[in-house]
Amino acid sequence: MSTQKENKINLLVWTRSGESLKIINEDLKQEFKEKYNLLNYTRRGDMLLMNHIHLDDFSKFSRRILIQPMDGTVMHPHIIEKINNFHYIVTPSNISKQLLENNGVTKPIRVIPNYYDNSLLDEDNGFFSSLFPEKKYTFYTESTAIHRKNIDRTLRNFLKEFTEEDNVRLVIKLNEVPKNRILHLKKLLKKYPNRPEVIIINKKLPKEYLHSLKKGIDCYICLSYMEGFCIPLLDAVVLKKDIITLDTKISGYGDFINEENSILLPNREIPIFLSPGDSWIYLKESKWENVDYVEYRKALRTVFNGEYTFNKNQDYSQYSQKNVIKQYNELLNLVSEEVVEREIKVRELAQRRYDEHFSKFRMNPDLNRRID
Questions:
Q1: How far apart are CA 25 and CA 289, in angstroms?
Q2: Nearest Cα to 230, choosing from 262, 201, 270?
């Protein structure tokens, strides 16, 4: 354990990639910076809080916590072995917990959800209304445009359902994806000359501007083949928006999405599409879900016509940043105690070894053991 900086426990909060994962990590660092000695990247220390599995060797941390969402249903056995080298597993949904257990994870698993930002419910700064002065029913989806997000079919079927005669628009919020993906989407738009308004925003926005977008829209669409949680979908239900998404059996949003607050679309099981970034984690036996697109188009028209009654008064306070961070604090308090207890045992054993060696010039075999 660290003997510097007021004897604070050393803590590394780290993630391999992912925009939402990095945001969560920064929030956690901000929360823990006073209580712990936060480390820059290293492979040795007191505690590791890692967001998403990675192949780096962190075995020299005294206690290791892994935050692991699920983007596929079947993991490689070597990944499960890697996960079981952590002391605690955190996953954002009960569905993900069940999948991890089904895959053979044996270490304690805690469900700690992702959260909506503290400032989401602050006053709107007016960005949406300045961007879209003309009043239209606005559909919205937020995406990284990777295959799993299913943005192409989301757009294509929207264009099949609506024309320029409909007082409707679709806003697609991307996050600085490669230009070839934007060109692909624009090429798709050109196939529908009588299309309704479609706006593609491919840039990172300051938090207050992104929140204004989310407040201004009318309906959030999520047709991803699988989601570990889906923070934008959580934001939408918290903001009491209409929702169209899948009646999922494998995506993490099943914990807070239901038939009262959303139109849930029928779907079927399909094989996973393994990108280079996922093939080292998931097996080809993994499954995703694909929506019934006829039902999707019907749902678009239904919400546009105001023909579906959504229950927008459900309580989502358990997903507030304050309440979720509290759960992380409770877990790290527990793990911190284990770090201290382990350090005490290590020192006691070292002292006994010292005493044994210099008193008898031999060592009791019982003292030659490893403390986990």
A1: 29
A2: 262
Nearest to 223 by CA among 133, 128, 154, 132: 154
pLDDT in tens, 246-273: 999 999 999 999 999 999 999 999 999 9
Residue 303's φ and ψ, nearest 5 degrees, are -70, -35
Residue partners of 183: CB distance under 8 A and separation at least 6: none
**d(C-alpha 279, C-alpha 250), whole Å:** 18
Q: Going by DSSP bridges, is the β-strand pair 267-271/287-291 parallel, antiparallel, or unpaired? A: antiparallel
DSSP 8-class letter at 253: G
Torsion of CA 325, 326, 330, 333, to 10 degrees: 70
User: What pLDDT shows up at residue 361?
Assistant: 54
192, amino acid identity? Y
Question: Within 13 Å of residue 130, how many CA atoms lie on the same side as its CB?
Answer: 6
- Residue 9's Cβ-side half-sphere holds a number of Cα atoms within 13 Å equal to 24
Chain segment 15-55, per-residue pLDDT in tens: 876 677 788 989 999 999 999 999 999 999 999 999 999 98
Cβ–Cβ contacts within 10 Å for residue 178, how many? 11
Residue 370: the pLDDT is: 66
**Among candidates 168, 170, 162, which has minimal Cα distance to 298?**
162
> Are 228 and 252 contacting, i.e. CB atoms less than 8 angstroms apart?
yes
CB 163 within 8 A of CB 196: yes
DSSP state of 280: T
Contacts of 50 (CB under 8 A, 6+ apart): 12, 14, 15, 58, 64, 65, 66, 67, 86
Distance CA 215, CA 239 (A): 7
- What token pair was written down for 333? 């308090």
User: What does the pLDDT average to over 339-364?
Assistant: 72
Q: What residues have CB less than 8 Å from 309, skipping those under 6 apart?
A: none
Contact 261, 311 (CB under 8 A): yes
Distance CA 139, CA 11 (A): 42
CB 319 within 8 Å of CB 113 = yes
β-bridge mates for residue 48, sequence order: 12, 64
